[in-house]
Structures are given as C-alpha cells and as structure tokens.
C-alpha cells in the first residue's frame, strides 16, 4: 500500500469495513444525516448511493451527463441529496431510490459548490460569480448580483443566519434576515477555500498566496498565518471551534483558537504523509482528525493528545491507489469514508 510505512511506527493500521470502485475519478463522498447511506460521485456525473454499513449498492445513475462538481446530503433525517453539475444545474435527489425531486437552474456556468444550512431548510449554490439560495424543496429564494470574480467557496454560519462567499478581493457575508443584505471582509488576494467555525466566531480562508487568512466576524479583526509552501485548499474545524486544521504542505498544521487564539503561538504539526495533504475532516465528537494525502494514505490524529508538537497519530491506512480526494466522518464518529483518484471508495472502522 503506497506510503503506508510513513506512519506505521507505533500506530495501528486501519481496517476497511468495505470497499467499492466507481467508474471514474471519485470527487467526493457524503453521509446521510442518520449515517445509513453514503453517497459518492464521479467527475463524469455518476452518483452511487451505498448502504453505509454493508457497502451494498442502493442505486447508481448518471445525474449530470456533462460532468459533476460536488454533492452534499441535507442534514437531519431527510434523505435528500444535492448535486452540482457542469450543465449549469443543481439537482435534488431522493437518496432512497435516486428519484429526482427538483432541478435548480443556475445559468450556463458550472455549479461548483453546494452547501446546506445547518438546519437543512436552505440550500446555497455557487455558479460562476453568483450565489443563489433555494428552499429545501428547490424553490428559488435569493440570487445575488454578480461578484467581481468567480466564487471559489461557500460556507454557512453555525446558526444558519448568514452564508459566506469567497473570491478575489475577500469574503462577503450574506444575511438571511434581510434578503440580499451583505457585508464585505476585504482581502487583497484571491481566496481558494473557506470554513466557518461551528460557533460562528471565526471565518477562515485559504489564500492563493499560500497563507491562511481569518476574520473574527463580530469585530472584523483579521489575522494571517503564512509560511505554507503550497496553496491551502483544505480547512477543517473541530466541533468545539478550538482547533483549525489546514493543508498546504506534506504535514497537517493545526492552529489552536482557545484563549487568546493562535496569534503569536506555535501550531501543532502532524507529520507523516509523503505527499501533500489533500483532504481534512474532524469528527463531530471527540476531536479526532482525519487526513488524506497525495501519497494515497489516510491517517487519523488526536491533536489535543499529542505528547510532542508533532501530535499523535492513532490510525493509518493506504488506499488501493491514487491521491485521496475526500474524507468524511459518519455522524457517530465510528466510521470514516474516503475516496481516491482511481475511483476507490472505502469505509474504515474507527474505534
């Protein structure tokens, strides 16, 4: 297994519960709110939904024949899956059988990002320079004016009151209480990734200039972490909003936001991958962090329990082949899904 020995010392090897191979590059995986289903998508537009426990295929169908960009399950018990395609549409699917519930027209541009509000009542889509908000049933609710450049990410505040968009020039926060109202968080560069802390206090963004820029949104006070050798394309917050994990290197860098925050402090560095970190996700409970790399390795960490600044890894596995394109925790924290560039989807047992 490629890269497996890089993290083996003193760590246990993760065990695969089940594994499946898609027809093409696996661009993402997402769990249903109850953890019963796992959806995976290929760049060629095919969606497959699996039984989360056994890996049995529930259904497979081509949803976007011209290609696909993203997918996300609605939170909660409803098994509704949102997808974004290269055909200028987002689609809502009944995940139990693959039936299309609604087609959401987003112009001619690729729908590169979809994101559900935390309560599942709203869906945000980003296509080219425009953010659109839809009801859970797929009815249009708001469309923003075109921004100055292509939107490169969207993220909801934890209470669902605002949704953030990023592009060249900074971030913009759109409020739901006053439809279409917004405020700009200016930054001179181009932002490529975004993650809002669960408590809604901090908006973190990866920048084109190989840095992480973040704002404390109540005060608009901003700070920057520099020194990354690569663009920071993956960000992940822990559930308590006390740790921010960042890619941008062969190591994962974790900044602590407890107390006065990370300014002037040294981060925890999680060493082990032999290729750049490509995917990050914190479990909803317990503080466990999953990382995936270009070396084909999936690793688990407990940053708060690290006896040294290097952190403590407690699980590792090599995928069958290819760069890890996505990692996603099941809600109970007992299973982790990963996808790689060769189309292999794996569910790992944790704990």
Assign the CATH superfamily. YVTN repeat-like/Quinoprotein amine dehydrogenase
| Average pLDDT figure | 91
Shape: globular
Order of helices and strands: EEEEEEEEEEEEEEEEEEEEEEEEEEEEEE
Strand content: over 45%
Whole-number total of structural domains:
1
CATH top level assignment: Mainly Beta
In short:
This protein has 351 residues and is an all-beta fold.
Structure description:
The structure is a single chain. A hairpin with a 5-residue loop joins strand 21 and strand 22 (252-256). The protein has a single domain, classed as 7 Propeller (Methylamine Dehydrogenase, Chain H), CATH 2.130.10. Residues 1-10 and 307-311 have low confidence and may be disordered. It has strands spanning 15-21, 26-31, 37-42, 46-51, 57-62, 68-73, 80-85, 89-94, 99-105, 111-116, 122-127, 130-135, 140-143, 153-156, 162-175, 182-196, 202-207, 212-216, 221-225, 235-237, 243-246, 252-256, 268-270, 277-282, 289-293, 297-301, 313-318, 324-329, 335-340, 344-349. The chain has 351 residues and is mainly β. Strands 14-15-16-17-18-19 form a six-stranded antiparallel sheet, with no helix packed on it. Strands 1-30-29-28 form a four-stranded antiparallel sheet, with no helix packed on it. The radius of gyration is 19 Å and the shape is globular.
């Amino acid at each position: 297994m490629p890269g497996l020995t890089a993290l083996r010392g003193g760590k246990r090897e993760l065990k695969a519960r089940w594994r499946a191979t898609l027809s093409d590059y696996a661009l993402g995986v997402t769990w249903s709110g109850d953890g019963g289903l796992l959806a995976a998508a290929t760049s060629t537009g095919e969606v497959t939904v699996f039984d989360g426990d056994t890996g049995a295929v529930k259904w497979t169908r081509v949803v976007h024949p011209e290609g696909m960009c993203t997918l996300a399950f609605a939170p909660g018990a409803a098994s509704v899956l949102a997808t974004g395609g290269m055909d200028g549409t987002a689609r809502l699917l009944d995940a139990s059988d693959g039936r299309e519930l609604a087609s959401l027209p987003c112009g001619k541009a690729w729908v590169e990002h979809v994101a559900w509000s935390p309560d599942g009542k709203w869906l945000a889509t980003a296509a080219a320079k425009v953010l659109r908000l839809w009801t859970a049933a797929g009815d249009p609710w708001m469309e923003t004016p075109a921004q100055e450049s292509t939107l490169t990410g969207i993220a909801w505040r934890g209470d669902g009151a605002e949704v953030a968009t990023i592009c060249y020039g900074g971030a913009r926060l759109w409020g739901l209480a006053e439809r279409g109202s917004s405020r700009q968080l200016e930054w001179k560069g181009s932002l490529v990734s975004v993650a809002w802390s669960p408590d809604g206090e901090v908006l973190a963004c990866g920048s084109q200039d190989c840095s992480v820029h973040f704002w404390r949104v109540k005060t608009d006070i901003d700070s920057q972490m520099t020194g990354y050798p690569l663009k920071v394309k993956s960000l992940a917050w822990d559930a308590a909003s006390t740790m921010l994990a960042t890619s941008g290197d062969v190591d994962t860098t974790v900044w602590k936001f407890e107390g006065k925050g990370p300014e002037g402090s040294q981060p925890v560095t999680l060493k082990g991958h032999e290729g750049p970190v490509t995917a990050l996700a914190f479990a909803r409970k317990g503080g466990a962090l999953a990382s995936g790399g270009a070396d084909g390795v999936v690793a688990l960490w407990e940053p708060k329990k690290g006896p040294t600044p290097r952190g403590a890894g407690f699980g590792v596995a090599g995928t069958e082949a290819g760069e890890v394109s996505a990692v996603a925790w099941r809600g109970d924290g007992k299973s982790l899904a990963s996808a790689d560039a060769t189309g292999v989807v794996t569910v790992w047992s944790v704990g």
